[in-house]
Amino acid sequence: MQKFSTGNKIRRGAGITSSTLFNMKVMKFGGTSVGSAQRMKNMVALVAAEGNVMVVLSAMSGTTNSLIGISQFIKDNELANASKQIDDLENKYESTAEELLTDKELLGQAKTNLKKIFTELRSYVNRPHTSKEEKEVVAFGEKLSTMLVSLYMKERGLDAVLLDATEFMRINEHGEPDQKFIKENIQKTLENNPGHQIYLTQGFICRNMDGEIDNLQRGGSDYTASLLGAAIPSTEIQIWTDIDGMHNNDPRFVEGTKPVNELHFEEAAELAYFGAKILHPTCVLPAKHANIPVRLLNTMEPEAEGTRIYNTEPTRKIKAVAAKDNITAIKIKSSHMLLAYGFLRKVFEIFEKYQTSIDMITTSEVGVSVTIDNERNLKQIVAELSELGNVTVDREMVIVCVVGDLEWQNRGFEAEVVNALKEVPVRMISYGGSNYNISLLIRKDDKIKALKLLSEHLF
Ligand code: ADP
Ligand code: ASP
Ligand code: MG
To answer: Do 150 and 162 meet the contact criterion of CB atoms below 8 Å apart?
Structure first.
């Protein structure tokens, strides 16, 4: 753990009281928000203005992809390419450090740290590379960004302490966050480092049950922020990114999308799970359970209102649309299903056995259709389902998800959605599973058309 403190804003060693803990916000900055020296300076200015915060950082944009590339080169025994990519990355970090730090001593410290980190990274090139080494390599990105930002905070005279996320972020044997461990250990870490203005740590990285370095999956820094926000517990979880909040449709495919100022936790959770890339799929859940508001804010436009996610009052409105790619639909048709009980249990047991979760489900008297987003065990699943009936598989499908306050007694929402998509072939429709979403399964090739039609008709 690296500690530094130059400010006197808070009495040192005063002991962290529950009220100091309670007043802390979590601020998470994504890849683009730390994507260059200038961006790092901007985000530090935002943090300095806030004070009393836990700051969670992603890797600089492009770094995690680059580390995954390095790991792949090593696996494929393309060692010269791996080394070249490590050199390029080191050059990028050296020039970022030079642009970021003016203080000679701190710049020297950054360069020494970079030498050490990149020597360690190079040591992976000439040894066996399993998934353990792959996860260790991927973890370098967040260590690099937090190292540089912590030195810049020091240069600015801020009272900050850098915490090693692998000391308190942990996943269990199912790859799920161990929230009890996280709570106990982040609170202990804060108690051992009392009274600072800024606690800085890495997003994404953690340890697993066996104590090995692991991660919370791509985009997982959001998840770190909400897990820590719930564990501390903080007063608010801010996700700072490159757009002014959750938009009402995917801005990568649809023009003229607009930010949604308020979302219920459930609405945000559905949107994140069904493809709104601005949030990691499960990151809303810890905040929802702890009832801590989440705000999505834009580092490039800090005064913009963004999106506030909390327990909103009912609005009776459709709020936004998202799409989840790489979906496979499986239909099981069986005359045995007619008037039989226990058929669905048998179907679900097969998915459970192969640890494959089901997203959508629709049934009729003679068949059931489900969707999955993970084809790892598709072959075995289809083989076992075939014993129950006739199985057909449709691949390269997309779930389009319409989200809002869609309580069933509020009339007309489903008609509006289906009407908007009357030109698009729809393979499945799911409505009524929650009060917050209508999901439709369509072909991948129809996705952009469907998203545009929904924006035209609904907003
Ligand atoms: P970060 O690196 O800060 O975590 P991400 O790239 O993960 O940022 O998420 C922000 C991006 O999410 C935006 O630039 C935008 O392209 C994309 N995005 C997809 N759907 C939405 C949506 N509904 N609202 C806002 N952004 C979205
Ligand atoms: N750096 C990780 C990624 O690119 C985590 C994150 O940015 O949220 O997936
Ligand atoms: Mg992200």
So the answer is: yes
Q: Looking at the predicted structure, is the pLDDT value of residue 133 above 60?
A: yes
In the structure, what pLDDT confidence band is assigned to residue 365 with cuts at 50, 70 and 90? confident
The pair of structure tokens assigned to 288 is 């929802």
Token pair, residue 405, equals 């306050």
Q: Which pTM value belongs to this model?
A: 0.93
The CA-CA-CA angle for residues 399, 215, 56, to 5°, reads: 95
Pairing of strands 53-57, 25-29: parallel
- Confidence at 12, pLDDT banded by 50, 70, 90: very low
Q: Which fold has domain 318-458?
A: VC0802-like (3.30.2130)
Q: Which CA distances in Å does 376 have to 71, 356, 379, 386?
A: 21, 8, 8, 18
Residue of 272, 283, 275, 281 whose CA lies nearest to 399: 275
Are the C-beta atoms of 133 and 124 separated by less than 8 Å? yes
pLDDT exceeds cutoff 60 at 21: no
- Ligand 2 centre to CA of 15 (Å) is 33
Q: Which atom of ligand 2 is nearest to the CA of 65?
A: 4
b (16+ CB within 10 A) / e for 363-391? eeeebbbbbbbeeebbeebeebbeebbeb
Q: Which residues line ligand 1 (CB under 6 A)?
A: 30-33, 58, 219, 241-243, 246-247, 250-252, 276-278, 322
| 140 Cβ inside 6 Å of ligand 2 | no
Please list, residue by residue across 4-13, b when 16 or more beta carbons sit within 10 angstroms of its beta carbon and e when fewer do. ebebeebeee
Q: Which helix (DSSP H) or strand (DSSP E) does residue 41 occupy?
A: helix 37-50
Q: Which ligand is nearest to the CA of 220?
A: 2
**Average pLDDT for residues 3-24, to the nearest whole number?**
48
Q: What is the CATH number of domain 18-241?
A: 3.40.1160.10
Q: Residue 8: what pLDDT?
A: 33
Instruction: Give the residue extent of every domain in the chain.
Output: 18-241, 318-458
Region 274-290: mean pLDDT is 96
DSSP 358: E
Q: Which of 39, 61, 64 to mutate to test the pocket of ligand 2 (most atoms within 8 A of CB)?
A: 64
Question: What is the C-alpha to C-alpha distance for residues 197 and 101, in angstroms, rounded to an integer?
Answer: 21
